[in-house]
Specification:
Its cofactor is Zn(2+). By secondary structure, this protein is α+β, with helices and mostly antiparallel strands.
């Protein structure tokens, strides 16, 4: 029954002209919650970009949001560009829209940006989150899930973990995705954009997904759950193209390609060295001078405050570094207290002490009884310097202990100043094609060791036989300069 009602609502919204929409006032409780948790979301998901690019995104958002039917859109809707290395955009019911710089790097013009923003505003305007009645609840997996949300003594992080749990379940139904596509198309046309931006962006995302599937197993990078909230399908792309054609506006309206490309010039792609770099099975943080390697077959997800590692025999998280006055033993006890969040008392064996690559360390393992059975929770802490302690938390099946992660905990070391200086960010560089340029010659300039041609073609929506017209602009990924 609920699905039938949703389909009727979809049809009604699709038919109503933008000017005739009834104003939708956002739920004050949703607004208050979004305002309260915005700073924590931004901090956990890479931080917010500032400056001209952020102002540009905000301007496009306000232009598109003005036609959404949301009451007082200039005050109710907020647009944030995240310094995140995953392609995604998402929104929360309280009127906050987030778009990552990695998704912007994949776009080709402003009409694609307008569609992405319009799609997210459509979720808000159609009240999709509450139509689904608080999303689908997912089990946290007891302490296995708690590792992803360990507060580690930071109240701001504790707040964001609650919000990330919501983002992890913020996946909409197929019908809701179609409806948000339709609404986004309507808003962007009303704002004067060419509706081609919708199918073009969906096609770009599809190409990127196909490339990532080809590279799977070589990057050791795990896409966070919050970045997988918009399932793609060939049918969705086809429908977006059909809807764009049906408007009679396809091929007309603003695309502002040169303006858009000027804004993405210099934007960081992939990991920001200031937050650490995942390169195959290794994680390196040039500013903190940290290096470690994950076991074969394990994947990493890099957050602002922690690196999460997962594989067939367990999960782990690397974090810490804040000021702590006390011994390694005291630190380990505090990590266990925060890990369990007071849900149960653990019998924690006294830590054993060792030295790993010249760094003093201590570790212990506690057996934990969960709803999923017995698991081992292990903590190893490293005295990095007198003011900083780093640690791994590891969760494995009962009886495994640190076992599967032994190579990882033993690989942690300080990198040299020369190693740190060699790490540079990858950035977008827009070039104007000259006579004689080929996809092969341009691809050789891509700042990657492998899949250079495939990455170049995907980034620009080209194929190996595409003719390159002199004067046209294309994007490259090159090495930039570290921010100091």
């Amino acid at each position: 029954m609920r699905r039938a009602l949703l389909l009727l609502a979809t049809a009604a919204i699709a038919i109503a002209p933008a000017a005739a929409q009834q104003l939708r006032y956002l739920n004050p409780q949703d607004v208050a919650e979004a305002q309260r948790e915005h700073a924590a979301i931004v901090q956990e998901l890479g931080g917010a970009e500032t400056g001209p690019r952020a102002a540009y995104v905000d301007g496009v958002g306000r232009r598109v949001g003005a036609f959404s039917g949301v009451a007082n859109p200039g005050q109710a809707l907020h647009f944030t560009t995240l310094n995140s290395p995953v392609e995604n955009a998402f929104s929360v019911p309280g009127g906050y829209v987030y778009i990552t710089r990695q998704l912007m790097a994949l776009m080709d013009d402003e009409s694609e940006l307008a569609f992405a923003i319009g799609h997210e505003v459509g979720h808000i305007a159609a009240n999709h989150a509450h139509v689904r009645e608080q999303y689908e609840q997912r089990s946290s997996g007891g302490i296995l899930g708690s590792i992803l949300g360990a507060v580690f003594g930071n109240t701001i992080l504790g707040q964001v973990i609650q919000q990330r749990a919501k983002l992890d379940t913020l996946s909409f139904s197929r019908e809701q995705e179609y409806q948000a596509d339709q609404l986004g198309t309507r808003y962007m046309i009303a704002a004067g954009y060419d509706p081609v931006g919708g199918p073009e962006l969906l096609a770009a995302l599809s190409r990127q997904s196909a490339l990532e599937a080809r590279m799977q197993g070589r990057t050791n990078r795990q896409t966070p759950e919050w970045a997988s909230t918009h399932p793609l399908s060939e049918n969705r792309m086809q429908r977006a193209l059909v809807d764009a054609r049906a408007t009679g506006k396809l091929g007309t309206g603003l695309r502002n390609r040169d303006t858009f490309l000027a804004q993405v010039e210099g934007v960081t792609v992939d990991d920001d060295p200031a937050q650490g770099i995942i390169d195959g099975p290794t994680f390196t943080h040039p500013d903190l001078r940290i290096f470690f390697t994950v076991p074969t077959g394990y994947l990493m997800s890099n957050g602002t405050r922690a690196v999460t590692i997962s594989g067939s025999a367990g999960k782990a998280q690397f974090g810490g570094g804040g000021g702590f006055r006390g011994s390694l033993d005291d630190y380990i006890l505090r990590v266990f207290q925060e890990l369990t969040r007071g849900q149960q008392q653990l019998s924690i064996p006294p830590p054993q002490h060792t030295s790993i690559n010249g760094v003093a360390a201590a570790y212990t393992t506690a057996r934990v009884n969960t709803s999923s059975g017995l698991v081992d929770a292990s903590v190893i802490a490293y005295q990095w310097d007198p003011q900083r302690i780093y640690h791994f938390v590891m969760i494995t099946p009962g009886g495994y202990g640190i076992g599967p992660f032994a190579p990882m905990v033993n690989s942690l070391r300080r990198i040299t100043p020369q190693e740190a200086a060699a790490i540079r960010p990858r950035v977008i560089h827009v070039v104007t094609l000259e006579r004689g340029d080929t996809v092969q010659s341009l691809a050789r300039q891509m700042a990657y060791r492998d899949f250079k041609l495939e990455r170049f073609l995907t980034l620009n929506g080209l194929d190996a036989n595409s003719a390159l017209a002199p004067g046209r602009k294309v994007k490259l990924v090159v090495f930039g300069q570290r921010r100091t």
